[in-house]
# Entry
Amino acid sequence: MLTYRALFASPEFRALWTAGALTTAASTTASLALATLVYRSTGSALLTAVAMFGPSTAQALGATTLMAAADASPPRRTLVLVAAVSTAALALQTLPGLDTTARLLLVVGVAYVTSVGSGARWGLLGEIVPAAAYPLARSTMNVAVGAFQVVGFAAGGVLLTALSTAQVFALAAAVSAAALPVLRFGLAERPPRRTARAGLAGTVRGNRLLLSRRDTRVLLVALCVPNGLVVGCEALFVPYAGERAGWLLVAGAVGMMAGDLVVGRFLGPAARRRSNTPLRLLLAAPFLAFALGPGVPLAALLVGVATVGYAAGLAQQEWLVALTPEELRGQVLGVESAARMTGQGVFAALAGALADVVPVGAAMALLAAGSLAVSLALVPGLRRAADRAAAPVH
# Structure
């Protein structure tokens, strides 16, 4: 059985994992600071949700215009550039007198650039580790995200009680900057996976291939819509719990991390397939209880249990890789990541709008019911995609 020790024996995997951990901690700390700042100044659930998740919709623009760069540019150079832009944007958030519009424009710009970085990262991961190790490697990267979301949200919650938002943004920028030398000196430069120019035409061709195949379309919907509706629930944590929202965010990160650890490390391909539907239903079902208005301790428990279900995405991403030509892997995985993040932003905005007209707990329950309905409707298509992935035809 593949082990974590074998994965971390690779210096390049260690560098990619460490850089991901640092950027996750920085971005989550900054997003909590921004959401708290917006909610304090406006009192609007919609604007708070948009501030925290809405800018990720810009990743759709990156996926449709520039994603070919994920395969047509040297991956280390791309990742270093993306990290530098993200760090600069966090530093700009510290400027005094910056209004909400300017802050949102900054994070929108970063989200556009990050969409290409996601494609480069996941494509490079497929080169660093053998194909058989990809699910474990992907889950290990996801664990880094979960663990350092905990760190970021917990640190952000504590720091916001003692420091100004500008100071919190400055600390986040410093953490983000630490990822730059890790990427620059920890990764070997590789040639692009394909020689096509990194532009609109190449991006459109790759996206057309992805969307023209029924199985990859189903996988894309499964990775974006049910999860996005649940992220809409998470976007309402600040309106639901106020200053104690950090407990719900931490619980969500812990649940996601636990799910990825178990599914990625201990389940083989057949077990990942069998558990896929139950995990997708688990992701949404506990949020139905928010219609009853549970207190923060019980709410945190429900969130922690539910977010274990995010691990269903590991099998779906594994099938997507198996159905993707190698020369387009970075673009396809980047499009998947961008579409997923865009869905999160769209559903977060929908959640905020809904919570401005109905009770927050009821809005969360409605979003969860929608996620359950979509997951059930996708069962036949996902079974077909899993069968095709077992013997891919490119």
Q: What stands out?
A: The chain has a mean pLDDT of 83.
